[in-house]
Amino acid sequence: MKITIIGAGAVGNLLAARLSATPAQVSLLARGEALEAVRRQGIMMVTPLRRVVYAQPHVTDDAHELGPQDVVFLCVKAHALRSALDSLSLLTGPHTVVVPMINGIPWWYPYQQPAPLADQPLNSVDPSEALWRTINPAQVIGATTFVAVENDGPGRIRHISDQRFVFGAISPDSPHTAAMVTEIVDLFGQAGFQSRATDDIREAVWVKLWGNLGFNPLSALTGATLGTLCLDPGTRSVGRAMMLEAKAVAEQLGITFGTSVDERIEMAAGVGDFKTSMLQDFEAGRRLETAAIIGAVIELAERLGMAVPTLRTILALLEMRVRSRDHALQSAA
């Protein structure tokens, strides 16, 4: 199986390091400092057991040299997907499956869904509809990741905890993607991950989103780790209110949750003192995934005619916090 991973962030490097130990032919598409670091020294990973593991995957910045792949994992931020389209077109053949490893509500979510989605792209995550028009949904496999992994510099990651992945076809009309789900689950098992297939990937998206939506924004606002946010009565209460609003939206879209909000919070608390990806991005001066994690849920609520006041309040505060950060960085430059 020929696999390319687009993006050398924390999750991309984790996949490249672990999948390289399987029989698959794995390539990592990277650029800038990340490209040079992996070329020079490979990927250094600190495991949850504090073992230091080195991997040397094939790495390049030239998608043309790789050609069409069997599987392409998109391991970039949701707002950076459009910048990956040129590379993706060079890696995609008629039988390639595309697996976005992204947080929040993905651009493909409305595909073959009833009203009010009804194949209408989400402006919050795909404002130009470039993703909707460019990536064939019949070739997409949905995925959710439950891993706590941090960047520790170019080519260096710390895998804190968890290694669970869920995969599922976004449409029942594609036998090829359904078969590939099984192959990907098996491959991830060979890499030592806990992986499974699901017949309802949209439900898995919401279960993952619950944790991101409830605590990623609060982490960027407060600077607190996930464990602290879940245990502090004040921030736990705010996060819980956000999750309940999102749950109501999801249920109106036909999602049935197999776990309660409080159980999901306890799952997050079990991760401990981990900096969420949004806090890591905020501290590094990078753009935040607010559109996919909060904005998309607010847009869905608007389509349904539902009020989500807590989500709107937190989004407004977070946008102000980002503007203040950016102004300070510009003033210091």
From TrEMBL:
InterPro entries with a match to the protein in the record: 6-PGluconate_DH-like_C_sf, 6PGD_dom2, KPA_reductase, KPR-Related, KPR_N, NAD(P)-bd_dom_sf
Listed GO CC annotations: cytoplasm
Domain Ketopantoate reductase N-terminal per the UniProt entry, residue ranges: 3-170
Keyword check for Cytoplasm: no
GO MF annotations in UniProt: 2-dehydropantoate 2-reductase activity
EC identifiers of the protein: 1.1.1.169
Pathway where it operates: Cofactor biosynthesis; (R)-pantothenate biosynthesis; (R)-pantoate from 3-methyl-2-oxobutanoate: step 2/2
GO biological process terms on file: pantothenate biosynthetic process
Domain Ketopantoate reductase C-terminal: 200-320
Alphabetic keyword roster: Pantothenate biosynthesis
Superkingdom to which the source organism belongs: Bacteria
Catalytic activity field: (R)-pantoate + NADP(+) = 2-dehydropantoate + NADPH + H(+)
Matching PANTHER family: 2-DEHYDROPANTOATE 2-REDUCTASE, PROBABLE 2-DEHYDROPANTOATE 2-REDUCTASE
Listed name of the protein: 2-dehydropantoate 2-reductase
Protein species of origin: Insolitispirillum peregrinum
